[in-house]
Amino acid sequence: MIPIRGNPITRVSTRLPVNPVALFSTPRTTSLEPGCCTTMINKLAKVLRVVDLLGEYAGKTFSYLVLVIIALETIEVFRRYVLSSPTTWSWELSTLLYGAHFIIGGAWVLKEGMHVRTDIIYARLSPKTQALIDVILYLVTFFIFAGVLTWTTVSKAIYSWTIKETTYTLWAPPLYPLKMVIAISFILLLLQGLAQWLRSLIFLVKGEKI
Q1: Interval 115-137 mean pLDDT
Q2: Quick one: which H or E segment has residue 205?
Q3: Are 137 and 115 contacting, i.e. CB atoms less than 8 angstroms apart?
Q4: Beta partners for 174?
Q5: How far apart are CA 210 and CA 198, in angstroms?
Q6: From CA 151, how far away is CA 188, in angstroms rounded?
Q7: Residue 154: strand, helix, or coil
Q8: Is the per-residue pLDDT at 154 higher than 70?
């Protein structure tokens, strides 16, 4: 007979049973992680920066047309009053170039906040209140204005390009290049307005400037 040395020790496992379904399930989250929102805002800021650069570079590039206009007018004055031989094209070409020079800078001026405005109350408001006003007014005024003009100028530019439209003068230069510039100008203006609106909206909601 074999003696029994004490009672056997019963070991109790503290490990919980494994649910095989839980191994392949995705953890549930109730809200977006802060890092995710920050990443999205950073990506959006890069896109808006590209929009800024498009309008700015277009405006700066076309600003040099003023030098061409000055040269054309100087030549015209010399020929008219010194040589008594005015041209038939100088004044009209200067007008077309100035139209492109003037209209293409709209997006750049909007980015810099330099459009003419009668500001009596807006400047005295807090940044949050200014952002709220911008968000509302961009929706009810700017996007309607810019959207209608973008649609109109693009359709007219396409038609002008199709028929190879010219002016109704003796020189009759092509008019469709200027109409294409006008259409591109309003596209850039609409994009810049959207960028400004998104900046105001993000600042209003999160208090961050991008």
Answers
A1: 90
A2: helix 176-206
A3: no
A4: 166
A5: 9
A6: 13
A7: helix
A8: yes
